[in-house]
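Data deposition worksheet. Section B asks for the primary sequence of the deposited chain exactly as it was used as input, without tags or linkers unless they were present during the calculation. Section C holds the resulting structure in token form. Section D is free text for depositor observations; keep each observation to a single sentence. Incomplete worksheets are returned to the depositor.
Section A, Depositor: J.P.
Section B:
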Amino acid sequence: MHRYPNHLLTMNKNIRCIFSGSHSGRDEREYYDLLEDYFPREHFTVYPNVMLHTILGTPPDDAFNREDDPSQRNLLRFCSIDLCVVSNEDFYPICAIEVDGESHENEDQRRRDENKDRLLVAAGLPIHRVRTYEKNVSTTVRFHRLTKKEKRCELERALNGKHLSITPKEHLKPLLADLGMLECFDMLNEILHGSNYALFPKVGLQFIFSQPARDSLPEALQRECCLNSTVDFCVVSATSLPLVAFDINKYDRVKAEVFRHFGFPLLQLPERAKRSEF
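Section C:
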């Protein structure tokens, strides 16, 4: 398999941390680590920033309260879940975790949160919101950022065993949907076993390339591709930087142009890939 040393990838200013930027990125990573400890790893896996269209099928009739609201219509195309817990048995999602920073006090953000919550609940996927802060009432500083210990308590409060309820799957999709993806997933994990790299399936391009880089793309189709397209797999470093992406047995011209433009490796895998082909 091709090797791309971390120091070379960090020189590519077009890529970003797989978790969100600024404080929220550190908060998401801490909650990710806490979730990995909370859920038994032999039964569940936690994935960051999972695009809604990769785990949700046709929305139920009551998913939207206003069909004329663009923010509701575009939820499935462009939006994601901060952290998603997936069953290792059938790769269906069992619950979603949203990490809410201070910006979620904003009225517009609250409305977007309500739209997302409504869609997920209607689809049968439990959603739990955890805070990264608490309000101060006796100091001039409005918000206090939670420590990791406080975040552990916040996570336990939010979950409180609720994820154990049986999730109906009528409106959900498995994250790994077919035999070809499962075989490639197992093969790549075997190759990466014992390394400091992680393998994430169905990663959105918006979580590989930074927003300034995406905004700099010359064509509207390329910019839209970065918002709603995914790669089948992405290898991520211990510092949460994307290193290399894979697609299985398919070629998307616009997506290929985006990766070439940013100088980031996108490798094509045959559907029945073998170790000898790397």
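Section D:
The longest helix spans residues 22-38.
The chain is about 35% helix and 20% strand.
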